[in-house]
Design brief:
heterodimer, A: about 100 residues, Ubiquitin-like (UB roll), 3-stranded antiparallel sheet, 2 helices, about 20% helix, B: about 325 residues, mainly alpha, two-stranded antiparallel sheet
């Protein structure tokens, strides 16, 4: 690990019990312990977090924005996945 | 790439901007958009880090524990802001050491306001009130800029910045109710920090060639002169509460415009400071280079330690040199 920069980590914070972790940004650290402590100092100075996840940026695979149309195409013509596709009379309650 | 394809990509890109669809790091973007953002975001980050220096100067001499806590927290926040911005900048495909080299070699700029000295405690109050005030006015619109990571970083920054301005104003309010010497110190600081703060918004629109493109790409949402006028209007009212006179004899309410008129700005000083001839330019860069060089052993030791730990975990029973 003799590069000029420490590895880059993506930081995810759970702000409150019951919520999911959200991506908040990145930082450099030499290992996961340091990444967590740095994330605590950079992203939770005002009690914004109850839990931190750190992932080395190289381990994140992102879908290609240029291929978004093809990737998400299957859902575009499946309107029957939505409740409004189904016709029910008004008398049916709680549905 | 054919010209037709390039044109179609640029049209799609501009279409997204026009429809307020955010641009994210891996989206196609014109090379000039990428380079403009790298320059602007990194210089914004450098400004935060260098901005820690004039205020750090007074941490050991803050007049009370409350003041020391507030100032420490503010300076710590500025470090954090620099880090949010470096992080946003790096999403555009540039590495941290490249950005730091640009700062340390003088290739990159940072906000020229930080090239002024903090000679009295009142300067700390003036910085909070005026410099952070101007920064907030600049930064709030950027929360809606077209580039996702920059906009999101600005949202965090703006949330934190409001305590900075209140801290500064509270310092000045305390001085304004104090002894004659304290009130003189307050007026003296305002005399020195007013004009440089007004100049923080950059040259007049007519002399700002990049503004049109930045506004078309929604990196910039308001012009320099618009923001400057807003700042003056707001600050004049706040100055009345402090009982200070702003050092501009031409400041006058203009009923017709619904704004305060202010004096013609002599931009020579601004350009001199930008060129490197301000009171503290050399000091600031020297301090940053020194910190970076003297911290090299810490960075190397941390990496060596992490490597050693990794090797130990991989082969727990082998000897590690």
């Amino acid at each position: 690990m003799s590069k000029k920069n420490w590895p880059l980590w993506e930081i995810f914070i759970r702000s409150k019990q019951g919520l999911n972790h959200k991506h908040v940004g990145s930082l450099h650290a030499v290992n996961s312990e340091m990444a967590i402590e740095n994330a605590r100092d950079v992203y939770t100075r005002r009690q914004e977090g109850v839990s931190i996840w750190v992932v080395e940026s190289v381990h994140i695979t992102a879908s290609n924005p240029d291929a978004s149309e093809e990737l998400f195409e299957p859902a575009t013509d499946k309107v029957y996945r939505h409740p409004t596709f189904y016709d029910l009379p008004d008398e049916v309650k709680h549905m | 790439m054919t010209d037709a394809r390039q044109l179609s990509l640029e049209e799609n890109f501009q279409g997204k901007i026009d429809r307020e669809i955010k641009i994210e790091p891996k989206d196609w973007m014109p090379e000039k958009y990428r380079r403009t953002l790298i320059r602007q975001i990194s210089q914004h980050a450098h400004s935060e880090i260098v901005g820690m220096l004039p205020e750090g100067n007074w941490i050991t001499r803050a007049p009370s524990l409350r003041r020391k806590l507030g100032l420490l927290a503010k300076v710590q926040d500025e470090a954090g802001h620099g880090l949010y911005l470096y992080s946003a900048c790096e999403t555009l495909g540039v590495e941290r050491d490249t950005l730091l080299d640009q700062l340390h070699t003088g290739k990159a700029k940072y906000s020229s306001i930080f090239n002024y000295p903090t000679t009295t405690w009142a300067d700390i109050g003036a910085i909070g009130w005026l410099v952070d005030g101007a920064a907030i006015m600049n930064q709030v619109p950027i929360c809606r800029c077209s580039f996702g990571p920059y906009a999101r970083a600005m949202v965090r920054v703006c949330k934190e910045e409001s305590f900075h301005q209140r801290q500064g104003f509270e310092i000045l309010l305390t001085l304004s109710k104090g002894t004659d010497a304290q009130r003189e110190m307050l007026q003296d600081a305002v005399n020195r920090w007013w004009l440089p703060s007004v100049m923080m918004f950059g040259p007049p629109d007519a002399d700002s060639p990049n503004t049109a493109q930045s506004m078309k790409w929604k990196i910039k949402r308001f012009t320099n002169d618009d923001l400057r006028q807003k700042f003056v209007d707001v600050s004049v009212e706040q100055a009345k509460i402090l009982g200070v006179t702003l050092p501009d004899p031409d400041l006058k309410w203009n009923e017709e415009r619904g704004h305060y008129d202010f004096g013609e700005i002599n931009w020579d000083e601004f350009w001199e400071v930008v060129k490197g001839n301000g009171p503290c330019n050399k000091q600031r860069l020297d301090a940053r280079r020194k910190a970076h060089n003297e911290g090299a052993w810490v960075r190397e030791a941390a990496m060596a330690y992490a490597d050693k730990q990794e090797q130990r975990e991989a082969a727990p029973f082998s000897k590690v040199a």
